[in-house]
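Exercise 3.2. Students should predict the tertiary structure of the chain below and write it as structure tokens, then compare their answer with the key that follows.

Predict this chain's 3D structure.
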Amino acid sequence: MISHAPASHVEPKPAPEPGAPPRFSVIIPAFNYGRYLAAAVDSALAQPGPTFEIIVVDDGSTDDTPQVLERYGGRIAVIRQPNTGPFAACRAAFEAARGDWVTVFDADDRLAPGALEALARAIDADPGCGVAVGPWRSVGRDGRESDDPFVPPSGDRLADFDAFIRGRLRFVTGAAAIRRTALNVFYGFQRLLPRGMETIVFGHLLLRERFAVADRPLLFVHDHPDRLRERQREHGITTADSVDVMFDPTMIDAGVAARRPVFEAWLLRERARQMYREGRPRETVRAFAQAARRDRRSLLDLRNARRAL
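Answer key:
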């Protein structure tokens, strides 16, 4: 069991409606995204169909995030805490959540219309599942939308884990719902990272839970110049850190642990991609060369190979 984040101030929730708790808890961690936050909250409030609650975690914002949240009054629950990163923000919300299912999306993204209905249909079609996932749409800086490549899990847990650690299966937290009882996986790691834990948790969920698949895009993921994604280096997080946590020996058996170099190679290829986007040629070449040494199949990643060349 991990130690919990420092106690956060939770603003009083509106009195619960009589009867069962909501089916979904929609969680939005927010840090200095006041200019995007209203669109995110509105996209959740507009969801038809299943019952839900909305929990926004203000992770120590210094912009107008508090003022934006005040406009919603009792329609949402708000948790305020010092800035400790999105993972700690999500954990604070998990402890307050009342829904049977939890979905989390960033404050600069938006739930697609009917997303919760689509997730509910997927869950109802496979009542024993622990996770429901679906496709999403990317919104470029020019406002153009495109479908992200989404490959549904096969149902073979080990094969799906192998595909995931090679980068062939991708998931986005906002285009997913996790059964609240399955969230226990969050509390088993000996060590946590302030960023990047969503990748590690999805890997472990693939090994433990059955996945259902929604039939339509669930989320709009926005690209913009000041987005906070892919900033692990700012927190001093290395590839080795992420690999160590994914393959925590207390969480994974020896047979799966042998796949460690494959995951490390994928992370290094992702680092090479990011270094290329940032115009850092030496680091691009270094990361791709390291990936090839960890797993020679990295040489088949022709796009990254061309970038390195």
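Discussion points: The radius of gyration is 19 Å. DSSP finds eleven helices and twelve strands in the chain.
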